[in-house]
Amino acid sequence: MGGRSRTRWAAVALGVTGLLCAVLGAVMIVVVPSLIRQQVLKNVRIDPSSLSFSMWKEIPVPFYLSVYFFEVLNPEEILKGAKPEVQERGPYVYREFRHKVNITFNNNDTVSFREHRSFQFQPAKSRGSESDYIVLPNILVLGAAMMMENRPMSLKLMMTLAFSTLGERAFMNRTVGEIMWGYDDPLVNLINKYFPDMLPLKGKFGLFAEMNNSDSGVFTVFTGVKDFSRIHLVDKWNGLSKVNFWHSDQCNMINGTSGQMWAPFMTPESSLEFYSPEACRSMKLIYQEPGVFQGIPTYRFVAPKTLFANGSVYPPNEGFCPCLESGIQNVSTCRFGAPLFLSHPHFLNADPVLAEAVAGLHPDPEEHSLFLDVHPVTGIPMNCSVKLQLSIYVKSIKGIGQTGKIQPVVLPLMWFGESGAMEGKPLQTFYTQLVLMPKVMHYAQYALLALGGALLLVPIIYQARSQGSKGDGGQPPPGAQPARPPSPCAPLLQDSPSGRPPSPTA
Known about the structure:
- By secondary structure, the chain is α+β, with helices and mostly antiparallel strands.
- It has 12 helices and 15 strands.
- It has helices at 2-44, 53-57, 75-79, 139-147, 153-166, 176-181, 186-194, 249-252, 352-356, 365-368, 424-472, 490-495; strands at 63-72, 86-105, 110-121, 133-137, 171-175, 214-222, 234-237, 271-276, 281-293, 296-302, 328-330, 340-343, 371-375, 380-394, 409-421.
- Strand 8 and strand 9 (281-293) form a beta hairpin.
- Helix 1 runs antiparallel to helix 11 (424-472).
- Residues 480-506 have low confidence and may be disordered.
């Protein structure tokens, strides 16, 4: 009796444990999604107590800037009216360091900051050195010539004389370091003397001179602490709610984030919008496909083919005009009036006539497309590669001899790619806190429910067997004859060969 009692109590205990597990699992199914959501919101908002704050403040991802130049192979022939021929040189790779400074939390749920940037050349990753000489269009000469197109002839002749005196030509042969970070040019001093508002720079001129050891202005973004719906969205840039570079309110709007983090809980219907000071406009990327990066689920976002389309192909872009062929965006209004154009590398997704006008261009979607891989639950980028090309529109300007007989053409100068991928300890921390733990909690709730259900069966099975055992004690086994009760005649029946009682004798 003692063993049966212990078994019964063990079954009851297992049943109670199963009930508790089942209840806990059911509660977790209801509560865990809300807990995960709250945990994500707590860790992605811009707040010193959040998990991602240090990542936001000083980006731990190693970013690299890869620069490719389009060296002009036939500069003298171009001046005589020939088709330009170019050869891609590079990449010249730089490690990019970013960290935020002057971080100020405001009373309206926003934070203001500047993001300081610096670059360090990486010889091991580069194909060439910064001392390499490259022949490129002279942006100062050709840009100034274009800006003088509608000026009086006398002024053009004076500029021609000035170019000749200073030794300026339509094409220049300079080192990569000079092209990137600046060189002293007497033309800059001349322009600043007679046209003081034409150029924003007073010293050296270089394509990236303003980016090294500098920042891209003051961003003010929403923290998401009080109002999650506006998390990471830009409130103002340099104190402006919209810019005035373009010809429509829609194009001048500052939309999206500052380009580093986006709102969490994305769906395939989500888009990535951000404001780029370098492009002087907001850009929107669209969802392409799901993926996995280092075990972390991602959504890939890419540029729509209409990103740089002209107004005739995509009417909302009319505000960025005056436009040339579709696929290139005129950025002269935010680049001191120089006839510069932004596009995808090698005129990818642009009107084919642009690539056909320059020998040596080979647009390739695999090599020249830009993308961002973002963790959809947190809105944090895991892997990105943003690629853009800078070109200059050139042609012969009557009265300015340095332009010769150049036929109108959009001549590519260079293209660059900014790339970065999360790795090392930041990746491990991110995976553990924001991917692994939620996944463990997700599966734990169903495991507890299943375990609870299994344990609940133990007392039920025990009870059923106990009832069966009690019933079996009073019933004969199937096919067996019922036993006869003992009687005084039993020995006589056993002793009789026939099994019948013996006859009585007289």
